[in-house]
Amino acid sequence: MKKATMKDIAAEAGVSVATVSYVLNGAQNQTIPSETKERVLEIAKKLNYVPNLAARSLVKQKTGLVGILLNRGADEGVWKRSHQAEFLFELEKLLTKQGYHVLLSSIDVEKPNLEIIAERKLDGVILVDVKEDFFYSISTTVPSGVPLVIVDSVIDDDLFYKVIFDYQDAFQAARKKSPEPAVLIMEAYHNAGITERIMKDSGFHKDDIHITSGEKDLLAFLDKKKGQPAVILNEFLASSISRHRNIEKDTVICTSGCPSILPAGVNCVEFKETKAAAAFNVLSDLMKDNRGLHLEKYTSIQAE
After folding, report:
1. What is the rounded distance in angstroms from the CA atom of residue 47 to the CA atom of residue 33?
2. Residue 50, number of CB atoms within 10 A of its CB
3. Computed from CA positions of residues 150, 84, 67, 29, in that sequence, does the dihedral angle turn out positive or negative?
């Protein structure tokens, strides 16, 4: 089957190839009627037009590649892997829809290999749950001028843009649903800053906070706190817990955007935007000509 070209789209739309190029590449300095834009985009979709990445790179001096760097440890619970998979699935879908190609790299949190960043010319980078000890070695590998968005990490540096949930807002919402939660159960993060932020914003005493690293220690904690209502961070973690105890009296803060996986009737705190959508929006703004001038350094996702 012959691959559709801009010339094919132009012929069917009754416009010039240049106009098709302006529309498909989102040119900001061209005045094109909205009706024409819609017609070109509709025909491009009908013809299954796929942009030539190499050609676009030469014209726009961009590769169309976005790197997602996910810090991973050797032994991570199934709830954390499921949470990451949901985030990556949505983020990849959003980036692909905008014509980007996604390059995913899992980085060993203890011994990060940064060759993939150095070997690829990326238009933007999203860095997830990074240890403070390695942040600057990773960030300095990203070429100057390439936008870097940091997710699930508290980094004390105003040069970089961060995406994080408004945990204080979420815990306030959780207490409205269950006025007397006794304990907090949360997953482990590689970034110490976000762990400290969550613990502080939760309002729980440190002895009533369990940071679970595996099923064995989780079960021991649940046995110790049997019968005490809990706030659980991450619905995949809550789903795992539901196999061992009734969580109807608990409140789940849904950081994965998947409340439907929980048993019916469970108290849920949801957010106005998913983490993937927020990260995508920030990176998109940074990759545009305005370079995100209106953005705050921290994008806080508020609870509904």
Report:
1. 21
2. 10
3. negative
